[in-house]
Amino acid sequence: MTFHRTWRLLLLWPLLLLTGCGASLDDYRGQGPNWDLARFFNGKLVAHGLVTDRSGEVTSRFRVEMQGRWREGKGELFEQFYFDDGRQQTRTWFLSKGADGHWRGTASDVVGEAVGKTAGFALNWRYQLDLALPDGEVVRVSFDDWMYLLDEDRLINRAAISKFGIHLGEVILYIERLER
Fold it and tell me: What is the pTM (predicted TM-score) of this model?
């Protein structure tokens, strides 16, 4: 074996060990409370959250006021974001459950369709988003978005942000239903 080939194998070995690591929906199967997306995101909600960079440093904090409405299995979730630097942003999600049992979501800054799968108290969304940065630049990133029900009225949301498979940061939210 040549010197360079040996070093390449040694450098790649940690990456191979990490392949397949991470949470799986199967880890939460059978653990309640079970997800009812239409129930949770119906009515008024409020969220408080933060954004971190790849090192874990907090780069932004925010509050979100939400209003969800459902009719005949289709939902609309309006979000109004208030950032600590004074910026505001809105997003409206259009939600539905597919024949395969997975949730589907679209919004003006979501590329294509977000697909959400549930098991027990966990919901995992995967999607691409055209993310507006504070300087006005828009960057297309991928979200691996996990929501964990604490109880019927509260959840923790953690979303990993990446581009080309490289971890860029994370969004962490606490969401609470105001109308029960």
Answer: 0.84
